[in-house]
Amino acid sequence: MTNRLTLLACCAFLSLPISSYCQQPLYKDASQSIALRTQDLIQRMTLKEKIGQLLSPLGWEMYERQGNGVKVSQKFKDIVAEKQIGMLWATFRADPWTQKTLKNGLNPEMAAEAANELQRYMLKNTRLGIPIFLAEEAPHGHMAIGTTVFPTGIGQASTWNPSLLEKMSAGVAKEVRLQGAHISYGPVLDLSRDPRWSRVEESYGEDPVLTGTLAAAIIKGTGGGKLSDPYSTIATLKHFVAYAIPEGGHNGAAASVGERELREYYLPPFRSAVNAGAKSIMAAYNSIDGIPCSSNSFLLTDILIKEWGFKGFTVSDLGSIEGIKGSHRIARDYTEAAVLAIKAGLDADLGGNAYPNLVAAVEKGTIEERFIDTAVSRILRLKFEMGLFEHPFVNPQKAKTEINTQEQILLSRQVAKESIILLENKNNILPLKKGIKLAVVGPNADNVYNMLGDYTAPQAQGNVITIVQGLRAKLAAAQVSYVKGCAIRDTIQNTIPEAIVAAQQADVVIAVVGGSSARDFKTEYAKTGAAIATDQTIGDMESGEGFDRSTLGLLGKQMDLLKALKKTGKPLIVIYIQGRPLDMNWAAENADALLCAWYPGQQGGSAVADVLFGDYNPAGRLPISVPRSVGQIPIHYNRKSPLDHRYVEEEATPRYAFGYGKSYTTFAYHELNISKETSKSTYRVSFTLENTGSYDGDEVVQLYLKNQFASTAQPIRQLKHFERVNLKAGASKRIEFIITADDLSVINMDMKKVFESRSTFTIMIGSSSDKIQLQKELEI
């Protein structure tokens, strides 16, 4: 130890790099600080090696299967030699775009072996032996063969249950890490205010507080930024920022939004996740006020680094740096695009094709090398934090036995149950009695992949429970008949007459309609992986990345099916399996019961059956408003004052409002009290919630606030707090929320968040945004 200290002192005295004298490189010494190890490693790296660490090529091309064995591909060897890459993306991804199937893709054990082989090659065949980061898609489960599939983001948000999502995300992170990956893409924090947009299913809805609260819980579940934990992942937040409000609903189109709205609505969910420990953020494809998000220094440097103190790294969306030239027409060539991006603060290049141009740019003096050093230091620091230099390998046997376990499957079922929203229940037709005979019809009644949503891998036989299967597990085989009736889009498929016969022979009809984000091998794909909508192939897919809509009605012959079923006179229960809020007007008015289950994941069929038969009392709540028509869009609940007025053709109100959902029981709200706390500008809001019905159940209580007078226009109401509360039948509970100065603050004329004194607020307690049960004025 004395010799070591003497050597360090000598190096410092001579003002020479420590690496010139130390036989054991400091960056390989785990006893040294991460800052020193990072600095030492960067000192040793060539410019090309530095830029290589910023590259993240497509990973599924980097391995080869040989029977049950896996080895690195020649393409991987070539790209390592040529570009000295530091990351791979979607190595274990399997879907029609990657052309990886159950036959040629990787199961969890083989994925872990592949990860080990990739790491082993990097350590043995590169000059500095830097481990490689493996990034994987994981918005509702790891997008890989054999993993657990949870409901998509919009379904997760419908639970309004942060603690449940924290547990879910911990399970997903563990499955990612067991296979040898390190970065999990998700959650998607785009506020969805246009259901025409193709990726609503991935989001957490329209509200910043709900999205931010759930995001913080998810980040906590992935490890909260404590990367030394063995199952902690680097969660990549998507998509920074205002990506879900594209003009015309076109995915990736420009967003028309000002700085104040950014700060009021679109930035807070990301800040909430950053405060919870998130260490990676993906820049969005779109532009804001004419500046592409991928080269927007205001967003990537001024906001993230200078204002928020973000300690992680940013990454482009796939090919979005090239898009600065190709899509946005800002740069004249890819070198200029790369320079604009890295100067703005975009650290990593997903796709790996733009940033190699930075080598020549630095050599020509177009950009200073310090920008490269800053970006690479952010990535290397996290590799050290995660302990990859000391522990680059994983145990394939653990991946084989600890992924998609019974515990995880039950958790998927619980998330699905809590996500289901009961929208109508006329004459209390639900829950059903188990002695009845059912006719189950519709394109989504027995379709495995339509249950899962986009960003889902191929599924082994029996891994996904459809609604027909879930119902048959509750009843005798003779009690459940099934006829498809029609397809989602294709009008050629038509067994409506057979469906009518089945309905006439049943006691109750269950019609499962909606949409699909299920990709197939006939679908065409853009270079970014987004599906391309064409008239040539009529599959089920009408949602999912790239499948934007101009209308929201049911497609194909689905409405013909519903109307024909109604004419039978049999009780009709309609279930929407969907990725966006579709038109529910007819079902709302004509169905005896109406449920929204979004894409409920691999246990969705069991969860729906649990709800239909009362084995679980539904308490899902809408995280997004359901419009009556496309002409109402945008119709989010927290629009700015003044209030909307009626259209000529219809009401200005949505069909179903944000926060709405029914239960099999009833709840009453009593005794609202507001008291000032000892701390400045802090108030305690309390009230009594009582279960007045005959079923045990959950109620999602919601606190909204209206700022009556402020220096800038404020929302007509804004969610500030919520809680999912379980109560036995007849029981009551005192509920409390703490309102802080932050809750009462506004973005003023100078774009600063301030608490304005001498204000009047209306405090509203409700069961949804349009069903306020209690309210009081608060004078400050």
From TrEMBL:
Residues annotated as signal peptide: 1-22
Keywords, comma-separated and alphabetical: Hydrolase, Signal
Pfam families assigned to the protein according to its UniProt record, in alphabetical order: Fn3-like, Glyco_hydro_3, Glyco_hydro_3_C
One GO BP: glucan catabolic process
Listed GO MF terms: beta-glucosidase activity
InterPro entries registered for this protein in UniProt: Cellulose_Degrad_GH3 (IPR051915), Fn3-like (IPR026891), GH (IPR017853), Glyco_hydro_3_C (IPR002772), Glyco_hydro_3_C_sf (IPR036881), Glyco_hydro_3_N (IPR001764), Glyco_hydro_3_N_sf (IPR036962), Ig-like_fold (IPR013783)
Chain ranges of the Fibronectin type III-like domain: 699-769
Family: Belongs to the glycosyl hydrolase 3 family.
Protein name per the record: Glycosyl hydrolase
Species name: Pedobacter cryoconitis
Taxonomy of the source species: Bacteria, Pseudomonadati, Bacteroidota, Sphingobacteriia, Sphingobacteriales
